[in-house]
Amino acid sequence: MAVNLSAPEILHPVRGVRLGTAEAAIKRPGRKDLLIIELAPGTRVAGVFTRNAFCAAPVQICRERLGQGGEVRALLVNAGNANAATGRAGIEDARATMAAVARLLGCAPEQVLPFSTGVIGQRLPVHRMIDAVPVAGASLVADGWQDAARAIMTTDTVPKGASRRVQTTQGLVTVTGIAKGVGMICPDMATLLAFIATDARLTQAATQALLRQAVDRSFNCVTVDGDTSTNDSCVLMATGQVGTRDLDVGDPDYATVAAAVTEVCETLAQAVVRDGEGATKFITIEVKGARSEGEARQVAYSVAHSPLVKTAMFASDANWGRIIMAIGKAGAEGLDPHSVSVALDDVTLIERGEPHPDYREELGAAVVARPEFTIRIGLGRGPASVRIWTCDFSYDYVRINAEYRT
Hints:
Blueprint (H helix, E strand, L loop, with lengths): L16 E6 L11 E6 L4 E6 L7 H12 L5 E8 L5 H19 L6 E8 L6 H13 L6 H7 L8 E9 L2 E10 L12 E6 L5 H13 L16 E6 L13 H23 L7 E9 L2 H13 L1 H8 L5 H9 L12 E4 L2 E5 L2 E2 L5 H8 L3 E7 L5 E8 L3 H8 L4
Parallel strand pairs: 4-5, 8-9, 10-14
Antiparallel strand pairs: 1-2, 2-4, 3-9, 6-7, 7-8, 10-15, 11-12, 11-14, 12-13
Helix pairs in contact: 1-2, 2-3, 5-6, 7-9
């Protein structure tokens, strides 16, 4: 069940982008599971991908294509099959589907980027996908973002999208994005596909820098279960339909566009956690007083990944012993327990490493019974801080993943 999350009401069209969907019966009949995103000529595309050593065939292809430069005219996305751990055959399968899209749009196959999500270790149903490509092509429309968000879902319960419009000296710029993912979610991207488009005109370097900045502040600040997927991909597409000059890093208009892209990415990242498999609580973890941002992240993720902490939160049990256990095992070198503080929202549990004299169990229990709350951790030894988002572990997390292939 999603925590305070509903389907997006408005996803603004982005000039230079058309989207079309079709049913290829990849996961099961009766649902659309194939998406084509067509891009205007001259669109600048940047990507950030999983660091999992078993990265899927589409990830390998996308990295190679984007590394070589050259124009991208379309994205092909399928749900229900990850095309991961499929060897050379997986690469050839992806290329066959890319060629089908290229024939449809009249571009070169290398101008099509493939993306997949779903079960690992199975070959793509290439013929069904190729047959579905013309159907998706016939449905290409500028306002197809809602259908696109639904087509890329796997175990998601709610389609995820966000949209912003900002005024620049070049004109009104739109940023719209969609994402999928509810499990196998961990920083450095996680079974997470995200596609963000803007009609701003950016240099290639600015497009990549903007995406990296936005991802570091959003998708790399979430975790559901600590598992990093084989297929994580986040793509930013800048169609250049607004304005007469390319924006580069340092331009005031670049800062305006970057803020909008980051806001869209943060909304999508939080939606992934809110829809985490079996989630009943949306939890923010703030760590302050660290020696470095890396140390702050180390502590935050140690708490966020702890099954004991996550199950206590599901039970509305303010078991602070599990929190300090997770802080202590994080590996922060030379951490002095007597400098550590812990609070749930504004209720202080631990101060200078000891229970706060005014703390009572019912105060903490009242906080963790809420659907949303913050675990605040102070290390008391430096200026660095970090904020991440996670969720609890419920019975349904086990059920969903136990039944995933059945």
